[in-house]
Amino acid sequence: LETTLAIIKPDATRAGNIGHIVQRITDAGFRLRGMRLMHLTRQQAEGFYAVHRERSFFGELVDFMCSGPVVVMALEKEDAVRAWRDLMGPTNSKDAPKGTIRGDFGTDVGENAAHGSDSPENAVSEVAFFFATSDLL
Ligand code: ATP
Ligand code: MG
Questions:
Q1: Where does the Nucleoside diphosphate kinase-like domain lie (predicted)?
Q2: Atom 30 (ligand 1): residue with closest C-alpha?
Q3: Model confidence over 73-125: pLDDT tens digits?
Q4: Second label for 108, Cα 20 to 30 Å away, from 56, 57, 95, 127?
Q5: Residue in 68, 73, 53, 50 with CA at minimum distance from that of residue 123
Q6: How many domains does the chain have?
Q7: Which of 112, 130, 134, 89 is nearest to 5 (CA)?
Q8: pLDDT in tens, 16-53
Q9: Considering the entire predicted model, what is its pTM?
Q10: What CATH code is carried by the domain that includes residue 65?
Q11: CA of 124 relative to ligand 2 center, distance in Å
Q12: Is residue 122 within 6 Å of ligand 1 at its C-beta?
């Protein structure tokens, strides 16, 4: 079993979609090992997205991720990294099919409702960024 890091982004928390998204996660068979509602500081958002520091959209991404509370979750399942990315759908909500989280709850390439780790290695460090082992189920 694998654990991945998921975030319900500020657009989706603002729109009242936390419950709908958590329902999809549990319906899809993930075990919710950790969950925090928090408003990221600039420093936390910049640290979390440090790999994107040189990208043109970095400032916009950090502004967005600090624009309101997010829900940070650790999700366990077989092949969790891939399974959660499949459930989210493609990065750009405009390209994401109905039935995916980004298709149903996101708006565009920036405001796309959810984050997921992109590899098992990054999942380990992203989970550790937000959760102490003793806080995980
Ligand atoms: P995430 O890492 O959030 O799960 P992803 O792996 O599908 O998304 P990345 O390429 O890692 O996509 O981009 C990280 C995030 O940066 C995206 O989810 C999106 O919010 C934002 N982003 C990506 N591309 C753009 C862009 N061209 N303009 C604005 N924001 C963008
Ligand atoms: Mg990514």
A1: 1-137
A2: 110
A3: 999 999 999 999 999 999 999 999 999 999 999 999 999 999 999 999 999 99
A4: 127
A5: 73
A6: 1
A7: 130
A8: 999 999 999 999 999 999 999 999 999 999 999 999 99
A9: 0.97
A10: 3.30.70.141
A11: 14
A12: no
Cβ-contact 113, 12 below 8 angstroms: yes
**Alpha carbons 58 and 127: distance in angstroms, whole number:** 21
Structure-token match 């657009």, residue found: 11
What is the overall mean pLDDT for the chain? Answer: 98
Does the active-site annotation cover 115? yes
Does any ligand 1 atom lie closer than 6 A to the CB of residue 58?
A: no
Q: What is the ipTM of this complex?
A: 0.93
Domain interval for residue 118: 2-135
| Pocket of ligand 1 contains residue 67 by CB under 6 Å | no
**How close is the Cα of 119 to the center of ligand 2, in Å?**
9
Q: Where are the beta strands (DSSP E) in 9-110?
A: 31-38, 70-77
Between CA 65 and CA 109 the distance in angstroms is: 13
